[in-house]
C-alpha cells in the first residue's frame, strides 16, 4: 500500500505575497542590527561619562580604548549574569500566574481564513494593577531603595541582554513548531500569508504561524502572540520608567517635573492599551502578521528598552521644565491626543452606528465590497489621520529632555564648573564630587533622546503603506477612486 500523502502546509484561501523588509538581506540586517542599536542607546548615553559619550564628539581622536572608558565597558562577561536571567524568568512566570489566576474576559477573535474563531483570555489591565500595587507596597516600606528598583538600575544591561536572548529563542521556537501546521485542521492553526516564502531568514523574522499557541503544565494553553503583545514588555516599559524615577531620587534627593511628565504621558498610553486589550484582535499584528522575531523582539525588547530612553536620560540629568515648559509640552500632548482620539471615535461611530447624530452628516462612498469609506470629516482630511495624532502625541515623550546632552565632570578637577547657573547641574549623590553639566555635549544628546520620533515616523509610514496595500487588495479600483477623493496619506498638504 502506498504511503498516505501529507496534507498541504498552506492556509485556506491563500494569497500570494512577496518578501517584506527587503527580503532575506533586509530582515537579516534588521534582526542583528536592532539589538546593536539597543546597546548603542544604552552605552552611548550613560552616567559614567555623559550623553553622548564625550569621545564620540571628537571622531578624529576617537580610539577604541577611549570609547571603552567613556561607556564603562568592563568586558563581555558583564553583558549577562545568572541572577538577571533568574529574575527575568521570575517576572515572566509571575505574569503568567496573574494571567491564569485573575478573573478574565473571554473574547472571540476575528474569523480565520480557514474558518472558525479562536478564543482569547484577557486580563492584562487587572494584572498590571496588581503588579503596580505590589511595587507600591514595596516602595512604601523601602522607599527608592526597594530591591526591584535598585536591581533594575544595577543590572540594566544584563536585563537588556536577557530579553534579547528570549526574543531569539522564542522566534526560533515558533518557527520550528510552525512546521507542524497542517491544512485543514481542527485546532484552528494556520500560516501567516506573508510568512512562508520558503526562505528561512525571512520567514523566521516575519513569523510563519499566524497564531502560535503553547500548552504549559499548570498554566494551560497560552496564545503566544496576544500574551506577548501587552504583558511582559508593555508593562515592563512602565516599570523601567518608575525605576528611573527612583534612581533619580537616590542620586539627587529629588524628582524633577520632566521625568514625572514623561512617565505620566507614557503610563497613560500604556494603561489605556492594557484596558482596551480586546482591541488588539482587529490589529494587523493579530489578523495578518505571523509571530516571528519581528514581533518577539518588538514586544520584549524594543518597546520597553528604547521607549524608556528618555526617563533613563533624565535619571542621570535632572532637568526642570518649569511652569511654561510644562504647559508647552501639555499643549503638544493635548493636540496629538485630540486628533488621535477624535478621529478614531469618528471612525468607530461610523462603523457601529452610521445614524449617530454626531457623524450622520459625514459624506462617504460605497465600494463593490460592500464597505463604506468616509470622504469628509477627519477621514476626508487624510486617509490615516489618526497616525498624525499618534505622532504628535509622541513628542510629549521627548520634549521634556530639552536640548539634550551632558557630560559628567569631577568637581576636584574642574572646580570652576561646580555650579553652572540654569544648567541643571547638581552635586547630589554622585560619588567623589561627580556632577553633570551640558558642556559641549549640549544638543548632541538629542540624537539619542529624540531617536524615538524618527523611528516612530518610519514605523507609522511603514504601517500606513501596509494598510494601503491591504486596502488596495480588498477594494481594487474603488480604492483608486477613494485616493482621488482623499489624496493625502497622513499629513494634509504634505504627505
From TrEMBL:
InterPro entries: ERG24_DHCR-like, Sterol_reductase_CS. PROSITE patterns: STEROL_REDUCT_1 (PS01017). GO terms for cellular component: endoplasmic reticulum membrane. Keywords: Lipid biosynthesis, Lipid metabolism, Membrane, Oxidoreductase, Steroid biosynthesis, Steroid metabolism, Sterol biosynthesis, Sterol metabolism, Transmembrane, Transmembrane helix. The chain crosses the membrane at residues 21-44, 84-102, 122-141, 156-176, 252-271, 321-340, 444-462. GO terms for biological process: ergosterol biosynthetic process. It is found in: Membrane. It is a multi-pass membrane protein. It holds the Pfam family ERG4_ERG24. It comes from the Eukaryota. Its main location: membrane. GO terms for molecular function: Delta14-sterol reductase activity. Belongs to the ERG4/ERG24 family. PANTHER family: DELTA(14)-STEROL REDUCTASE, DELTA(14)-STEROL REDUCTASE TM7SF2. This is Delta(14)-sterol reductase.
Amino acid at each position: 500500500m502506498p504511503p498516505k500523502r501529507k496534507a498541504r502546509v498552506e492556509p485556506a484561501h491563500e494569497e500570494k505575497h512577496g518578501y517584506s523588509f527587503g527580503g532575506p538581506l533586509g530582515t537579516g540586517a534588521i534582526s542583528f542590527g536592532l539589538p546593536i542599536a539597543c546597546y548603542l542607546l544604552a552605552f552611548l548615553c550613560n552616567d559614567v561619562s555623559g550623553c553622548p559619550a564625550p569621545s564620540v564628539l571628537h571622531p578624529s581622536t576617537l580610539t577604541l580604548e577611549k570609547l571603552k572608558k567613556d561607556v564603562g565597558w568592563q568586558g563581555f562577561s558583564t553583558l549577562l549574569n545568572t541572577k538577571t536571567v533568574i529574575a527575568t524568568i521570575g517576572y515572566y512566570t509571575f505574569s503568567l500566574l496573574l494571567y491564569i489566576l485573575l478573573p478574565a474576559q473571554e473574547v472571540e477573535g476575528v474569523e480565520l481564513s480557514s474558518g472558525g474563531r479562536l478564543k482569547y483570555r484577557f486580563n492584562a489591565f487587572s494584572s498590571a494593577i496588581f503588579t503596580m500595587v505590589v511595587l507600591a507596597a514595596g516602595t512604601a516600606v523601602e522607599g527608592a531603595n526597594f530591591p526591584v528598583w535598585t536591581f533594575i538600575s544595577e543590572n540594566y544591561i544584563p536585563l537588556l541582554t536577557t530579553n534579547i536572548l528570549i526574543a531569539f529563542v522564542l522566534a526560533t521556537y515558533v518557527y520550528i513548531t510552525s512546521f507542524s501546521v497542517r491544512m485543514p485542521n481542527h485546532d484552528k492553526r494556520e500560516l501567516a500569508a506573508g510568512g512562508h516564502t520558503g526562505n528561512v531568514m525571512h520567514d523566521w523574522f516575519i513569523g510563519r504561524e499566524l497564531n502560535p499557541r503553547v500548552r504549559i503544565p499548570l498554566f494551560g494553553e497560552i496564545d503566544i502572540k496576544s500574551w506577548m503583545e501587552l504583558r511582559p514588555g508593555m508593562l515592563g516599559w512602565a516599570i523601567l520608567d518608575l525605576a528611573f524615577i527612583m534612581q533619580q531620587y537616590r542620586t539627587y534627593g529629588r524628582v524633577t517635573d520632566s521625568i514625572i511628565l514623561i512617565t505620566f504621558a507614557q503610563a497613560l498610553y500604556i494603561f489605556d492599551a492594557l484596558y482596551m486589550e480586546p482591541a488588539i484582535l482587529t490589529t494587523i499584528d493579530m489578523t495578518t502578521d505571523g509571530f516571528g522575531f519581528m514581533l518577539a523582539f518588538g514586544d520584549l525588547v524594543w518597546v520597553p528598552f528604547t521607549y524608556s530612553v528618555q526617563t533613563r536620560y533624565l535619571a542621570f540629568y535632572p532637568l526642570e521644565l518649569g511652569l511654561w515648559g510644562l504647559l508647552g509640552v501639555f499643549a503638544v500632548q493635548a493636540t496629538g491626543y485630540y486628533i488621535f482620539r477624535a478621529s478614531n471615535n469618528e471612525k468607530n461611530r461610523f462603523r457601529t452606528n452610521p445614524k449617530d447624530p454626531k457623524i450622520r452628516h459625514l459624506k462617504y462612498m460605497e465600494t463593490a465590497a460592500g464597505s463604506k469609506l468616509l470622504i469628509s470629516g477627519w477621514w476626508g482630511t487624510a486617509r490615516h489621520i489618526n497616525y498624525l495624532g499618534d505622532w504628535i502625541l509622541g513628542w510629549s515623550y521627548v520634549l521634556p529632555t530639552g536640548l539634550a546632552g551632558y557630560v559628567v565632570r569631577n568637581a576636584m578637577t574642574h572646580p570652576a564648573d561646580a555650579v553652572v547657573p540654569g544648567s541643571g547641574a547638581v552635586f547630589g549623590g554622585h560619588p567623589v564630587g561627580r556632577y553633570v553639566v551640558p558642556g559641549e555635549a549640549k544638543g548632541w544628546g538629542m540624537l539619542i533622546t529624540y531617536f524615538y520620533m524618527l523611528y516612530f515616523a518610519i514605523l507609522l509610514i511603514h504601517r500606513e503603506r501596509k494598510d494601503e496595500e491591504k486596502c488596495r487588495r480588498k477594494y481594487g479600483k474603488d480604492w483608486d477612486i477613494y485616493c482621488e477623493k482623499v489624496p493625502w496619506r497622513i499629513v494634509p498638504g504634505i504627505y
